[in-house]
Write a structure and sequence with these properties.
alpha/beta
């Protein structure tokens, strides 16, 4: 045990040694204890100090909490990469894990024993022989790997290596590993406390170094100088990039405290930017890149002008989620439609493809809202004039069917409610100003549902429009004349029915 060494306890909690020696509060003054600062602060109760019976504090190291004094016998310093690989990919004549294809036995509720069978163990081994160069993709997550060990020629075939959550303690160790694996192209060292790198990795093309204790953008640029893909999420980065990289195509800086994306323009050939979970990032204004994919979920986007800024980047794929401030007052379907309407190049939003039919319906829906509420932030966009021209005939038809009413009766909308479950039909005349919440309660009473979902279609083959905002009037959604609204049970209703059936 030495100060600085990475260790783990019997249940896999990882930490860094900060002190080795006697502790004043120990019953045995000669006993050796190890002061460990744990990666998970909830694991420890100390801050590097103890208080003697006479009230005097004795400090051995400084930390913000999350530390413990542990007996050396309770800690493990791990093993080498070569040892871990030899333990995982054993030779054909090694003892079987499941002799006779029986791995063990399980006890059933009735007190009977059932065999747990493992079939094909030898067949799997035959295609995982290190010495024959069969192992190209290696995964050793949380395997206690701390160093390379004695390199072997059999490691030369490894192209992908996953070393997440091990005991690697410096980038020098990572460099040694990469140098010993000449075929290595993809490496994942996330969850290891490595600090700031000073040298790029040889021949590696894709690196994941999430939550590795990187603190400066200079270190990120050092890594990025020869990579095509770099993930450095969950590292608290200070400063801003200045050198960039000519090779980098994908950069993941999620949850790094990013405030301003404009300096990322130094990565001139970047095609994908993942910047989610940066709560203070309000827009991508000033970023002069053309990006195929952007991720901005759980950020601080609080104005729809931020989405208009994205249009300059011409993204084809966007992951935005529904938890940015700008979408808090909108239902999921509204949020999706208004984003699609603003971004003409978008082909996929939040993992779902945007079809031509959905784009047409989204742009029409946006226009209905923009014309009804022209002064709202969501209605103001540079694309508004283009969309009005594109759908001139549609808008003229809408205007003719929704002319200002002259009498109270002419403001009533004849609504046809259809239950998706049983096909029951009900008709009601309601003012266009009726809130969705009231219609939902009415449908719940008619069809004996709890909180039903409701949707309608402008045309028979159109994308359904969800009535998913209880605070909005029906007129907000641009209901056609004499609309048919489909009513279905919500997930809550389904869960309640399942619980009743179980009872």
């Amino acid at each position: 045990m030495e100060v600085g060494v990475r260790v783990r306890d019997g249940v896999g909690n990882r930490g860094t040694v900060r002190y080795v020696g006697p502790v004043a509060t120990s019953k045995d003054p000669k006993a050796v204890w190890v002061g460990v600062v744990w990666d998970d602060p909830a694991r420890g109760k100390h801050d590097g100090a103890v208080v003697r019976e006479d009230g005097v504090e004795v400090r051995y190291f400084h930390c913000r909490g999350g530390a413990s004094f542990v007996r050396p016998s309770k800690l493990d310093t791990g093993r080498t990469l070569v040892e871990a690989m030899r333990g995982r990919y054993v030779p054909m004549d090694a003892p079987l894990e499941a002799p006779g294809e029986v791995l063990g036995y399980a006890l059933t509720k009735r007190g009977q024993t059932k065999k747990i069978e493992l079939r094909g163990e030898l067949r799997v081994r035959s295609v995982q022989q290190l010495d024959q160069g069969h192992v190209e993709h290696v995964s050793l997550r949380a395997a206690g790997v701390r160093a390379l060990g004695e390199p072997e020629g059999s490691l030369g075939c490894v192209a992908t290596l996953d070393l997440q959550s091990n005991l690697l303690g410096s980038w020098d160790v990572v460099l040694n590993v990469a140098a010993a694996l000449p075929s290595l192209r993809r490496l994942d060292v996330s969850g290891n406390r490595l600090g700031d790198p000073t040298r790029p990795l040889p021949h590696v093309e894709s690196l994941s170094a999430n939550d590795c204790g990187i603190s400066r953008w200079e270190g990120v640029e050092t890594l990025a100088s020869k990579l095509r893909v770099l993930h450095v999420a969950s590292n608290s980065l200070r400063g801003a990039p200045t050198r960039g990289s000519e090779t980098l195509r994908l950069l993941d800086v999620a949850d790094t405290g990013l405030l301003d994306a404009s300096p990322l323009g130094v990565f001139r050939n970047l095609a994908e930017l993942h910047a989610s979970e940066n709560k203070s990032l309000k827009d991508l204004r000033g970023l002069s890149l053309l990006l195929d994919a952007v991720a901005l979920a759980s950020c601080g986007l609080d104005s729809w002008s931020a989405i208009d800024d994205l249009a300059r980047l011409e993204p084809k794929r966007l992951r935005l989620g529904n938890d940015n401030p700008l979408s808090r007052d909108l239902g999921p379907s509204e949020n999706r439609a208004f984003v699609i309407a603003r971004l003409p190049t978008l082909l996929n939003l939040n993992g779902a493809d945007v079809s031509l039919k959905e784009r047409v319906e989204a742009e029409k829906r946006f226009l209905r809202v923009a014309i009804a509420l022209p002064n709202r932030d969501l209605a103001i966009t540079p694309r508004l004039g283009h969309l009005k021209s594109k759908y001139r005939d549609y808008l003229d038809h809408q205007a003719s069917t929704t002319a200002a009413p002259k009498t109270l009766a002419s403001n009533l909308v004849q609504i046809r409610l259809i239950s998706c479950a049983g096909g029951s039909i009900a008709s009601k005349k309601l003012p266009a100003s009726t809130k969705v919440a009231l219609l939902r309660r009415l449908a719940a009473t008619i069809f004996d549902l709890n909180t039903p979902d409701m949707y309608f279609q402008i045309e028979p083959d159109a994308i359904p429009t969800l009535l998913d905002d209880d605070d909005k009037p029906l007129s907000y959604f641009g209901l056609p004349a004499s609309p048919t609204i489909h009513v279905s049970s919500s997930s809550d209703d389904d869960n309640n029915n399942n619980n009743n059936n179980n009872v």
